[in-house]
Design brief:
- The complex is a heterodimer of chains A (334) and B (294).
- With 334 residues, chain A is of the alpha/beta class.
- Helix content of chain A is 30%, strand content 21%.
- Chain A contains 10 helices and 12 strands.
- Chain A has an 8-stranded mixed sheet, sandwiched between helices.
- In chain A, helix 3 runs parallel beside helix 6, helix 4 crosses helix 6 and helix 6 runs parallel beside helix 7.
- The radius of gyration of chain A is 21 Å and the shape is globular.
- Chain B has one domain: MetI-like fold (Orthogonal Bundle), CATH 1.10.3720.
- Chain B is mainly alpha-helical.
- The chains are: A alpha/beta (334), B mainly alpha (294).
- Chains A and B meet through helix 2, helix 3, helix 6 and helix 7 of A and helix 7 and helix 8 of B.
Chain lengths: 334, 294
Amino acid sequence: MTDPVLSVTDLSIRMQGAPTDLVDGLSFDLMPGETLCVVGESGCGKSLTALALMGLLPTPPLRLTGGSARFAGRDLFAMSAPERRQIRGGDMAMIFQEPMTSLNPALRIGEQIAESVRRHSGASRDAARQRALEMLERVRIPAPHKRLDEYPHQLSGGMRQRAMIAMALANDPSVLIADEPTTALDVTIQAQILDLMRALQQQSRTALILITHDLGVVAEMADKVLVMYAGRAVEAGPAASIFRDPQHPYTIGLMSSMPSLGTRTDRLVTIPGVVPPPNALPDGCRFAARCPFADAACAAKPAFDMLGDGHGVACWHAPIEQTRSPAPAMGAIA
Amino acid sequence: MSTIADPQTQITDPAPARRGSRFWTKFRANRAALLGGVLVTFFVAVALLAPVLPLVDPTATDWLAVRKPPSPAHPFGTDEIGRDVLSRMGWGAQASLLAGVVSVAIAVLLGVPLGMLAGYLRGWTDAIISRMTEALLAAPFLILAIALAAFLGPSLSNAMIAIGLSAMPIFIRLARAQTLSVMTEDYVESARAIGLRDGALIWRYILPNIIPPILVQSTLTIATAIIAEASLSFLGLGQQPPAPSWGSMLNIAKNFLEQAPWMALYPGIAIFLVVLGFNLLGDGLRDALDPRDH
């Protein structure tokens, strides 16, 4: 068994002056070449986790309150700022959600990619430019020679996201964090970008943390899935196992609220209620207020129990036996 | 599973327009801005070409032609010691435009780095720079310039320094505000994500993106600075006799308004036109560079 390339233990993030952690005791391992999908609704701490791993957490108002992230044998959170900068964009890279605004409008595409290369490999201007061209070819941008000297506004959204991917992968990172890389793109482009990321990942054995709230993307991409709810991991495990046999009521709710192709028979299933606001997070199970299975036990914080073959869940009622129709007690909005 | 050659992944070329050409299209469609550009170009040309234009010596006196109204020999008339007004205006354009451009350059070169520093570092640096800026802004622009010029001593270069320092706070505030807004842009975050150092981030990501508003403000401030130089010269704190500047010409002309109104009329019109030109140009630049319409 190989060692994980990134091993996060008990990561906790808190907002200044808040009584509870926004991200609370998150742990996961990432193997080389593996794709981990982090799923959850808006505000559940997915992006904060990504920023914390990259060392880009805006502090203040946010701060790390605990945990460690071992990357290549060293704790990221114990490193000095220059050491972090060295890793950022080099061994660990990130792709952001908004390709339309994530490129510097005043710099040519080629210069932006070359900048990252020169920063990390100390390559000459010419060599970095050559590398930028090579990367544009790898992300299948048409007419890469021409694109190299164009400004971001001359590129479409899909091409800009390809350029972002080129920039992120230019230094052969061992971990790539993609924060909703396809959310801002239209559906056909989404599929192309996902295909591209998977192809590049297979070439380079880069481990991918893919943050998304789109279960379709998860089904397409994930080796492993981590489901987050209100800052905590509620369920994690191999993608196949999570899709076949979701154990946490929240995961079950997510799965059954997914629209599918075919004749529409009924209204989409929804999970009643909303995520508790960060200043009113309960001490016990954070999903209890919306959970059809909740009872007195849920007032205490459930431990993250392993059910076997890497599938773990944080629920007092797990394992939940499911009938063929999932989530019998989840109410559709009538 | 697609392969590299998958035709589906080919994207059609959207045939994008050049950033520069879009700017020009918008700028050219704006008549007022074009007029401003023509006025400014005209006065800059006069100032630059003054030495080679067929102008008589602007300091040569002619006791036989004192305070003569416009005539073929002196198209703009002569002043109180018989100097040619047209020639003095041509050479005076140098002083006026130089005062406008140099003082704004001083204001930009000092103000923009200070403002960017305040906006980038925030905290104590920001507090100190911002409080000092507010203190400077508390004094009206012209009063401050007059006080500084009086303190530095009367000369054209001191007048430029005084005007530059007085105009600096506007640029500190503008650069600070623009830096704060650019810092929230996603591309700054993605620049951090590729591990760029502060220096590279400021120089290549923040500065180029705050230049358009600063360019617009500079054009408008040049107009203000030209008036300020005229005012200082009018008060005797700018260009010193016998060298000409529009402001000092007005200063002397005020004594002869009834006997020789042309002495005041032409420098006054020149100041009006060049200030109008810079204002129209600045407005035009602002509209053409406005990213909201792109």
